[in-house]
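Quick one:
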Amino acid sequence: MNRTTVLEEADRLICNDREEDYGDPHVNFAHIAERWSQYMDVTIHPWQVALMMVDLKVARMASTRAPHDDSLIDIAGYTALAAELAHD
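Output:
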């Protein structure tokens, strides 16, 4: 799988399938940030939620022999969302 394929698949997922399933990422990640902030008693911003999801994927891959393509695609998608959310 080459980088263009990874980025195109990430784009397809976050702009179509995942958005259809979970709604607008600005709203969804703000909701998650609010819940996590209450739970942790610290302020968590939506862009930080995206980065923590990247870290979750990295942590999972640390226990596998080789990374799964879908995890790498998810990381690309979460990184793109973090960049977008950081400018809200």
